[in-house]
Design brief:
The structure is a single chain. By secondary structure, the protein is mainly alpha-helical. The protein has a single domain (about 55-230), classed as Cytochrome c-like domain (Cytochrome Bc1 Complex, Chain D, domain 2, Orthogonal Bundle). It is about 50% helix and about 0% strand. It starts with a helix and ends in a 7-residue tail after the last helix.
Length: about 240
């Protein structure tokens, strides 16, 4: 009798153990480790033009590396980013930057351009020629002829949601903490633009189709290199 009870108990224990879910093994890869990043910044299934957070896939690695360091070190502030990056080494941030730079997620369709012909002309003049009288360089002089950025440190202006572009211009013009404690060349330039020009830029840029990849390293003018040295610096960056 005792033997039968023992067998029944053993069978019962086996059934209980068999019903316990087995946790799948999660591979220790960089793709898995950066999952918290894609919660906000999206992935292939979530990329859309209505999101607030910017696209980071495909951006130049040097630019991503600089921004990660700026968030970690408090030069640019956003609490969620500060918490995620706290205590991470430069080497690890560089690895993350190269990972996202290599991704080729599809871009969202261009938004509708609701600007008048006159507003469009004003924006396109700023984009391609700037305004020398106000010491405003052409956007394409830094961000490339296709506005898709220049490797390794200059980001694209296209493929970004309207809300994000508007928020960044607001930060540059008004000294918002997210845009950084140290003024950069975009802060200087944005403050020289009128509010009407800023409004038009935030509509025109998301309305442009994506036709190219970030340009390979181009030689900027000496003036622009000196003017934007905080943006172009990449101590510790290697390709």
């Amino acid at each position: 009798m005792k033997f039968i009870v023992f067998i029944l108990l053993a069978m019962g224990s086996g059934l209980i153990n068999a019903q316990e879910p087995v946790s799948p093994l999660v591979p220790d890869t960089l793709e898995q480790r950066v999952k918290p990043c894609t919660i906000c910044h999206g992935d292939e299934d979530r990329a859309g033009r209505d999101a607030y957070y910017p696209r980071i896939a495909g951006k130049p690695a040097g630019y991503l590396f600089n921004q990660l360091r700026n968030f970690r070190d408090g030069r640019r502030y956003y609490q969620a980013m500060a918490i995620l990056l706290e205590n991470l080494s430069d080497e690890y941030l560089l690895e993350i930057a190269h990972y996202f730079s290599s991704l080729k997620y599809p871009y969202p369709e261009a938004a509708a351009n609701t600007l008048s012909p006159e507003e469009t002309q004003t924006v396109e003049t700023l984009i391609h020629s700037g305004d020398p009288e106000r010491d405003i360089p052409a956007c394409s002089a830094c961000h490339g002829k296709a506005l898709m950025g220049v490797k390794p440190f200059i980001p694209s202006l296209l493929g970004l949601p309207h809300a994000y572009v508007a928020a960044q211009f607001g930060g540059w013009r008004n000294g918002g903490s997210m845009r950084g404690q140290i003024p950069d060349c975009m802060s200087e330039i944005a403050r020289k633009l009128s509010q009407e020009e800023v409004n038009a830029l935030t509509v025109w840029l998301p309305a442009q189709p994506i036709t190219a990849e970030p340009a390979e390293t181009e030689i900027l003018t000496t003036e622009l290199t000196q003017r934007c040295q905080t943006t172009l610096s990449g101590e510790g960056f290697t390709r």
